[in-house]
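Predicting holo structure, NG6 bound.
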Amino acid sequence: MQPQLILKSTLAIATASLTSPLISKSVEKPNIIIIYADDLGYGDVSCYGAKSLSTPNIDRAAQQGLKFTNAYCTSSTSTPSRYSLLTGEYAWRRKGTGVLPGDASAIIEPGRTTIATIFKRAGYTTGAIGKWHLGLGPEGGPDWNGEITHGPLDIGFDYCFIIPATGDRVPCVFVENRKVVNLDPSDPIKVSFKEKIGDWPTGKENPELLKMHPSHGHDMTIVNGISRIGYMTGGRSALWVDENIADTITKKAVSFIEKNKDNPFFLYFATHDIHVPRVPHPRFAGKSGMGPRGDAILEFDWSVGEIINTLERLNLEKNTLLIITSDNGPVVDDGYKDMAVELLGNHKPAGPLRGGKYSLFEGGTRVIFIARWPGKIKPGISNALLSQIDLLNSFAVLTGQKLDENDAPDSFNNLDALLGKDKKGREWLIEHSGRLTIIKDNWKYIEPGPGIKITANTNIETGNDPLPQLYNLSTDPGEKNNLANQHPDIVSELTGLLNKIKEQGRSRY
Ligand code: NG6
Ligand code: CA
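Done. Tokens:
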């Protein structure tokens, strides 16, 4: 944090509001929308090089905004990336922040400062729509049939409409604010991740009832013809229809924007696309030629288009900073026989990068990242090093909010890079997938350690190696040549820095 900077921006805001309240509103309090895709790879959209399919809406945002080539989520799976983005703390500092089951209790404790809290302090209305996957309820999990506490509303959001965990986990219901949507109290929801409960059919016992079969795992309770992780019964009137999830949550996002068009708002819109089970609406089914995975990318692109169209329609474009990014890298077969492998053709979900979801290689965490704010962010391409963990602090600076000492211990102010004014960005960056990697000056060091090299079912190179690895990302973005032996000095510098960051328990001062 640079106190001088804050002083300057406060002064600027004060001066602006003295001279013109209208201009000052658009300058100091733009609406912020983060569209957070699920499992979308660096090479999955056409503006990042995909040739087999076209994503016109994401491309439009990239043309009108800044396209980052070195932007990262913190981890190669969903829960820890989301945790870090929302809290500004590396998930790997805390136990229990790995991929959560569907009935997990909340891992962000009520009252904690999050990105949403920062916006609330700045007078924004805040909303979380879409995938949550950060747990709900106190220890023991949420009360699905009553008031759901320890959720988004307890950590800074004014409104939420969420998928509690992921689409492949029970319970297959939406939660709006503190209640399951459309729940009939005479048909209560029961959930178990330990053993089968009730008499609902499972994928394992009744595969003949399935419209999509699992390839690994996902053989428990069948909902909407798809077997999931976990067992449930009840809540029939509340069950979602997978084909309609994108429509439902996109509609909620659009109406959140409409309702709040006259005041500053922050919208965290976390899509279910393109996570498994990939069950796009019939109007996208078969359209990509790549099966449901490709069709889900088209559906995601449609959702992005709906958001941009809404901003245009309501004349909010110049006053809205829109970010499009993903929670982790791509996976092709993630547990359902959806023809993703067979129909992949020449498509490279991670583009030129090695690895994917679950990986320490770049494919795990380097993600698409587009920042669009017409009139404020000059369109173009930025190679600045950017991490989603910095959004919290950067937005605190943007909106003139001061962080308390213990808030967001790993979130830096990287606003200038986000706005395209700083071409360099972060000094160093950490990636996480079980172990850690650190990038500095284009060198990437991967901690050594035991572990599987290729995941059995998803067929992804994890990056695990008992030997230290060092790659030169500027000449070798595909991480092919391990230069650790040639550059022991760099290995030792990066090991030292990484250990210091770990031991300090925080990295922001
Ligand atoms: C894995 C699931 C996978 C996916 C992942 C979480 C199996 C066999 N695999 O355990 O399908 O749900 O967890 O993905 O169950 S994430 O994007 O939410 O992190
Ligand atoms: Ca994910």
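The first strand starts at residue 31 and ends at 37.
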